[in-house]
Amino acid sequence: MLRYALTRGVLLIAGLLVSSVIIFFTLRVFPGDVAQLIAGTQASPEQVEAIRQSLGLDKPLLAQYTDWIGGILHGDLGTSQLSGASVGAELAEKARVTWPLALMSMTIAMLIAAPFGVLSAMLRGRAGGTALSVAAQAVAAIPVIWAGMMLVVVFAHWLGWLPAQGFPRTGWSTPAKAFESLLLPAMTIGIVEGAMLMRFVRSATLQAAGQDFVRTAAAKGLTRRQALIRHGIPAVGLSIVTVLGVQVAGIIVGSVVVEQLFTLPGIGRMLVADVGTRDLVKVQSELLVLTGFVLVIGFLVDLVHHAIDPRQREEAG
Amino acid sequence: MSPFRSTRRSARLAAIGILAAGALILTACGGSSEPQTTSTGKADPKAGLTVGLVLEPTNLDIRHTSGAALEQILVDNIYEGLVTRTQDNKIEDRLAKSHEISPDGLTYTFTLNEGIAFHDGTALTSADVVSSYETVKSDATVQGNAEFAGVTAITAPDPTTVQITLAKPDQNFLFNLTGPAGLVFKTGDTTDLKTAENGTGPFTLQRWAKGSSITFSRNDDYWGKKAGLAEVTFQYIPDFTAGVNAALDGSVDVLTAVDPNLVSQLKDSGDFTITTGRTTDKATLAFNNAKAPLNDKRVREALRLAVDHEALVEAVGAGQPLYGPIPELDPGYEDLSKLVPYDPDKAKALLKEAGVEKLDLSLTIPSFYGTTVAQVLVSDYAKIGVSLEVDRVEFATWLEDVYKNHDYELSFVLHVEPRDFSNWANPEYYFGYDNKQVQDLYAQSQAELDPEKSADLLAQAARIVSEDDAADWLYNGATLTALTAGVKGFPKDSINSRIDLAGVTKTAG
Fold first, then answer.
1. Which of B184, B280, B345, B433 could staple B418 via S-S, CB 3.0–4.6 A?
2. Can you list the pairs that B332-337 forms with residues at least 24 positions away whose Cβ atoms lie under 8 Å?
3. What share of residues in chain B are helix, strand, coil (percent, to 5)?
């Protein structure tokens, strides 16, 4: 187990390093820079150059990269080139919107995927099962932005139950209001992700139903359905944990779109704004934190998987 | 193209069905029923005002950061310069009690008002003015550095006098002092200007809730007439529909930059007075004069004749047509509408003459300007056989491709700065417009001591630029402001670049 964790840990760190290189250098391909934005449309090229120098943008790229990574190794995500504010502090503040949103989205996705996935597997070959599968296919294909707009029309405009956009200025000190404002955005992501996850749950359930241990249990006198529920579902749970790791990335991408649509002051919206102003030190740190988050989740999923799957445990000795 | 596209406008859909009852007040747009402050006597000196604005500043350092978002709220309210400008762009003394320009136009002598103090309590003297302006002159990263290029000496003969000497007369110099370059900061101040301030104005910064609002408090120790409001909160609402909703539900008292397409909702509610303010926003359709086929005047003229300017203004919803580079609020304005009649047939003939009957052109436009202008241009140009490909980009990309690298054919942006004619006299500017006569006339206008004569020279130069069809000025922007009852003295013109709050009051209740 320890050896396994160590190998995965080394891979995790290597993954982060490679990501940091990719993030840093691809961002440099963007046209325009923050100095030009600070200077505006009345500035001479000399003024822009002076600003670039004052921001250290004239340094070689490699030096800029090592400065950035060096800071991160000391736990410093850097400061915004535009506002001079600490990137870490701002990320922490915006995370108060984005993490709850991601968590709620994930919960909704699970609440949809687990029961309907198992149900559609059990109803395989019948009309109900086919209908569920088709519905899942259709919903999973909906672009998040369209789903969001439809939900706004129904729940905000027609029914008037939930706010169409925004996050309370008072934040989580008014928990009910804050929760309410995140509900539609979370549903938007949750429904689309849930439909995708549901297809996976269905095929995992079907696979489990064909497994030896389920068949053995059935042979020992349980009905097929009982056998599936008693012995198959735990195996399915295992696969879902794996997929959830991948799903996290989807939910983060979804939150970028959804935060725009619902004007939520979260990480996704900040990221888009920072790309717009070419505040690259901020953008790269934000992206690295998000990438790191996805990689760490993947790492944890691997460990959990390893710990609970009897087959893997035996293989590793 | 970045994968992160702004979807600000998509929330538009939230505009669905807001029907408010109430009396229809048909207070005509632009009716100048500007009420005078304190005339009713009911103004509440303890009142707080909430103002809805669109664009939040990225930081508060007005010395180092460009952009109207800063100037709009900080100049005159928090920071002050020796001189300032009124809503209609006239120059007025501020920290200076008086100023005098020597007959040769080279020496400016300012006498300071008495009792001026920074917000930390330190008295302001002429030495602070000298150090502030020395910084502008010597530090290229400070806003307005180029405007001080002609300054040869900045001295303080005594604590209340400042003298500035120029190498040659500069008709724009005093006006430049009304901008960020002219603001006075405390000598050797260690305040972090990005998040705090130490100005001399009638308001002080109370707090900045990033991503949401900025609040000012009245400076009760102000050296001049005290402000009429105890507190002002600028609430930043980037989405236009959300802004209108905020006004309707009473969370803002004043909404600036109202979307012309949404203004009827506010009018219909009966709770708001709408004012239409003039601006120096020039909606500029730039032609890359240095690039074929746009280096052919016939092609440029055809592109102007093909646009139905009146219809375009109507589609945009606010503003007035503008047929030259100088708007009404700036010196040198002249009605040039006769130069550009709407004449698609002549446009076609001109293109034929130029040998480009079928023409493919691209338009680079920052995406936050919406789609109206591009749509109108595409359809107007199609009628003369020009197919226009619209390239919607982020503003940063526009700055890089168009502004810096001059890599474009047609471009659209709003040039908002007042008195920016100099760009037409600068062949290095992205317009790529190089006309010796215009450059000479502009230089003369700057050297001319008499403002009237200087304006005449500018008008001549502007006429030539328009006759050359160096660009098309699609319209001169207007800005709509919605005020709830009880708000008095709120400025009307130019508030996209300056909101002087000192004279604003609100009645109790």
1. B280
2. B332/B421, B332/B445, B332/B455, B332/B456, B332/B457, B332/B458, B332/B459, B332/B461, B332/B462, B333/B459, B333/B462, B334/B459, B334/B462, B334/B463, B336/B462, B336/B463, B336/B466
3. 30, 25, 50
Eight-state DSSP code of residue B320 = B
Tokens representing residue B419 in the block: 């008195």
Q: Is A78 left (phi over 0), alpha (psi -120 to 50) or beta?
A: left
Q: What is the DSSP string of A17-34?
A: HHHHHHHHHHHTTSSS-H
Distance CA A193, CA A247 (A): 8
Angle at the Cα of B272 from the Cα atoms of B268 and B275, rounded to 5 degrees: 105
The encoded tokens of residue A51 equal 């600003």
Q: What is the mean pLDDT of residues A239-257?
A: 80
Residue predicted with more confidence, B332 or A151: B332
CA atoms within 13 A on the CB side of B186: 20
What is the pLDDT at residue B468?
Answer: 96
Does residue A27 sit at the B interface (CB-CB below 8 Å)? no
**Structural Rg of chain A based on CA atoms:** 24
Alpha carbon of A308 to those of A228, A241, A295, B5: distances in Å? 19, 11, 20, 42
**C-alpha dihedral, B140 to B146 to B150 to B152, nearest 10°:** -20
Q: How far B21 CA lies from chain A's nearest CA (Å)?
A: 18
- What's A172's DSSP letter? G
Q: Determine the pLDDT at residue B35.
A: 40
pLDDT level of residue A311 (50, 70, 90 thresholds): low
Q: Which of A37, A84, A271 sits opposite B59 (nearest CB)?
A: A84
Neighbouring CB atoms inside 10 A of A100's CB total 16
**How many CB atoms within 10 Å of residue B226?**
14
Q: A55, A34 in Cβ contact below 8 A? A: yes
> A2 in the Ramachandran plot: left (φ > 0), alpha (ψ -120 to 50) or beta?
alpha
Min Cα distance A229 → chain B (Å) is 44
The SS3 assignment for A66 reads helix
The residues near B277 (Cβ < 8 Å, ≥ 6 apart) are: B87, B478, B479, B480, B481, B491, B492, B493, B494, B495
- A40 close to B (CB below 8 A): yes
ipTM: 0.74
- Collect all residues with Cβ–Cβ distance below 8 Å to A229 and sequence separation of at least 6: none
The 8-class DSSP code of residue B115 comes to S
CB of B19 less than 8 A from some CB of A? no
- CA B183 to chain CA centroid, Å, is 17
Q: What gap in Å lies between CA A214 and CA A206, rounded to an integer?
A: 11
Residue given tokens 């109803």 in the structure block:
A123
Which tokens sit at A121? 């597997």
A38 interaction partners in chain B (CB closer than 8 Å): 64-66
| Probe site for chain A from B7, B16, B58 (most A CB atoms < 10 A) | B58
Q: Which residues pair with B217 in a beta bridge?
A: B204, B231
For B445, phi then psi, to 5°, come to -65, -35
B286: Cβ–Cβ under 8 A, 6 or more apart, which residues? B402, B408, B410, B411, B412, B413, B430, B431, B471
Q: What is the pLDDT of residue B509?
A: 61
Per CB-CB distance under 8 Å, the chain B contacts of A80 are: 58
- Position B403 scores a pLDDT of 94
Return contacts of A236-243, CB within 8 angstroms, 24+ apart: A236/A118, A236/A201, A236/A204, A236/A205, A236/A208, A238/A305, A238/A308, A238/A309, A239/A200, A239/A204, A240/A113, A240/A114, A240/A197, A240/A200, A240/A201, A240/A204, A241/A301, A241/A304, A241/A305, A242/A301, A242/A305, A243/A197, A243/A200
Residue B174 in tokens: 């005093």
Q: Which residues of chain B have pLDDT under 50?
A: 1-39
Partner residues linked to B162 by β-bridges: B110
